[in-house]
Amino acid sequence: MEQKAPTPSLVELRKLVEDCFEVKPTQYWVDFGLSISLAWVCFVFGDRSTSWALQASFFIASSLLFYRSMLFIHELTHLRREDIPYFSIAWNLLAGIPLMLPSFMYRGVHLDHHKRGTYGTKEDGEYSAFGGSSPLKLIPYFLQCFSVPVALYLRFALLNPISLLHPALRKLLMERGSALAIQFEAKRKIPSGIDLRNWKILDFLTSLHVYFASYLFISHVLAWSTLLHFYGIMVAVLFVNSIRTVVAHRYTNQSLQEMSFQDQLLDSINVEGNIIFHELMAPVGLRNHGLHHLFPSMPYHSLETAHQRLKKALPEDSFYHQMNEPNLFVALLKLWQSAREVHAPANAPTHVNL
């Protein structure tokens, strides 16, 4: 009988992709700079256009460009500040603050998602057992994209100043209303040191931006149609991001108890298929989300190279190949199927051929 080759250790796997951990600052600056610049240009042209066809085209383009720009928040969380000096400042000024999504809403929260002891547990704000729950749970999750822009506005325009009136209110807002999360029961940890200082600065600047923008609309410097246009962009960005989020993992950990590292990897997904389409739907390396959980510190621009290298180096029955799905639609259908099977009545047919 042919003996199965042993699974390489994490150290051995890392040696295969050792050259992929180098951060390339120029690529970050050019990619983000072009994305956010074109996003604002398309937004302005779309807002001023009188042609429905042009408005629709600019709306789609600006939505996808803002979406790509926004997702650099994921890289900010994993980068050391010294890797790309001032990049975090530029991102917040050009994208985070205008979109009411400053980096403190994600920094720290996301790192808990990568800790082996908290991934997939009640302490992981980025994990909800979609794959082990009723499929109907996905519907309100997708629909919340319509309410999140309003909630963000209220958070920075009203709750932020009100919370300063009493320490208990401030603590409540920081723990329960300051995280980009999908599990609202999770309470985020309040940072200290430079992270807390930056939080306070960004909190203040985002509220200031919201007040200034409100003044421009109330005083009719900007038309209300521009506000509606911006709201539509935010909804589109959040909706596409919600689709990407639900295909990043299999979300099968119903118990929300601690998982082994191997189970965490098998619960994570690399989405393959058409590169252009999947780069639009899951940009900045997030289509290789399983690989990202294997090596969280690997910069986004190297993930595809490392993914192809590991696929070739590892046997087809390896854990790594089990993390891969042929495209986004199969990953989404499998999630829906998994949820149906868990909640299907006894003896009811639930299998869907893929």
Note the topology.
Layout: H1 10-16, H2 25-48, H3 52-70, H4 72-78, H5 87-96, H6 109-114, H7 138-143, H8 148-163, H9 167-176, H10 193-218, H11 224-246, H12 261-266, E1 270-271, H13 275-281, H14 289-294, H15 303-313, H16 319-322, E2 324-325, H17 328-343
Parallel strand pairs: 1-2
Keywords:
17 helices; 58% helix; mainly alpha; disordered C terminus; 354 residues; single chain; globular
Global structural class: mainly alpha
Strands across the major sheet, in which order? Answer: 1-2
Q: Tell me the strand percentage band.
A: under 5%
Q: Extract low-pLDDT stretches.
A: 346-354
Total strand segments: 2
- Overall geometric form: globular
Q: Order of SSEs, N→C?
A: HHHHHHHHHHHHEHHHHEH
Q: How would a textbook summarize the main sheet?
A: 2 strands, parallel
How large, in whole angstroms, is the Cα Rg?
Answer: 21 Å
End-to-end separation in angstroms reads 32 Å
Assign a percent range to the helix content: 55-70%
Task: Domain count, please report it.
Answer: 1
Number of helices: 17
Average pLDDT, rounded to a whole number, is 92
